[in-house]
Design goal:
Structural class: alpha/beta
Largest sheet: 7 strands, parallel
Distance between the termini: 19 Å
Number of strands: 9
Order of helices and strands: HEHEHEHEHHEHEEHHEEH
Strand order of the largest sheet: 1-2-3-4-5-6-8
Shape: globular
């Protein structure tokens, strides 16, 4: 029996409506943060798929204040959804990777906006005790989510994509957040170089066992100027077909806990820098395909969770 109604998975939109009583949207912001995989602490070239804007293609201009960025995006959202509530989403770079006073100032600026919460994107290896203490403090005052990029729980894959940390290190950061009752969103990517379907399902099983508050499932985009572009052009990296991707996502949804909110089921690529796959630009078709496949299977999120 499908417990979710029209959708066959728990959307973040539905979870936030339950929490706040009305629609809430995240506003992506760019605080100009860097990353230990860029500044030399663990690497200088970044992850093999990451663009030179550190996953901030839609996160605003870091030369503008957070308020300026927020107001510009809010104007676009008003046209799309009308009046709603907002969560400030520090998206670009690793937003816990700075001294604690700098972070305190950034978070305060974000929370000075007309928002009901804060979402902080970062890496699990950027969570020192002083940063965790600051996040705990903020968590007591507002609706906080920390978003951790895992991408794959396979350490061989982590090496191939130049991730810069192991799954064990990810778990250390994840568990430190959960011990402080901080909501965590885990990001994974389907279609990483060298990964099989079973590798991607294994990552979903590992994440399911953690029972995170939220998960974002991304499609591997080949972006101009990255190592993975070179791999793609040389034939070392093959992208997933749309049907392959839809099938994998549906398999993963079946494995996930029913209470985990689904924040994303595919990624948004920048048309100006996207190399492949071209089909990914039709996001509506991908999401519709996932809905259709789940209906054909008479399946839904969490159907196989108890069997993990």
């Amino acid at each position: 029996m499908n417990p979710y109604g029209r959708k066959r998975y728990l959307t973040l939109d539905a979870a936030l409506k339950c929490e706040f009583g009305e629609k809430v949207v995240k506003v992506p912001l760019n605080a100009g943060m860097t990353c230990p995989n860029r500044d030399g602490k663990v690497g200088v070239d970044g992850c093999s798929y990451c663009s030179n804007v550190l996953s901030g293609e839609f996160a605003g201009n870091p030369r503008e204040s957070l308020r300026e960025q927020f107001e510009k995006t809010k104007a676009l959202y008003l046209n799309k959804w009308g009046e709603t509530k907002y969560i400030a989403y520090l998206q670009a770079g690793s937003n816990t990777y700075a001294d604690v006073e700098t972070l305190r100032s950034i978070y305060a600026s974000a929370l000075s906006l007309p928002v009901v919460g804060l979402s902080v994107a970062t890496r699990a290896d950027c969570l020192g005790k002083d940063v965790l203490d600051l996040l705990s403090e903020i968590n007591e005052k507002t609706y906080l989510t920390v978003e951790l990029g895992l991408q794959s729980s396979n350490d061989r894959t982590a090496e191939r994509i130049n991730r810069g940390h192991t799954y064990a290190e990810f778990l250390e950061g994840y568990n430190a957040l959960r011990e402080r009752n901080i909501r965590v969103c885990v990001h994974i990517i389907n279609g990483l170089v060298g990964e099989t379907r079973e590798d991607m399902l294994a990552t979903a099983r590992d994440v399911a066992s953690l029972r995170p508050y939220e998960i974002k499932i991304h499609l591997m985009h080949v972006i101009r100027g990255t190592l993975d572009e070179k791999r793609y052009l040389s034939g070392e990296l093959e992208t997933l077909s749309k049907d392959e991707y839809i099938g994998i996502v549906c398999d993963q949804l079946e494995l996930l806990p029913p209470e985990t909110a689904i924040g994303r089921l595919t990624g948004d690529g920048d048309r100006s820098t996207l190399v492949a796959p071209a089909w990914s630009m039709d996001k509506r078709s991908v999401l519709g395909g996932i809905d259709h496949e789940l209906k054909l299977r008479d399946s839904y999120q969490g159907k196989l969770f108890e069997n993990i």
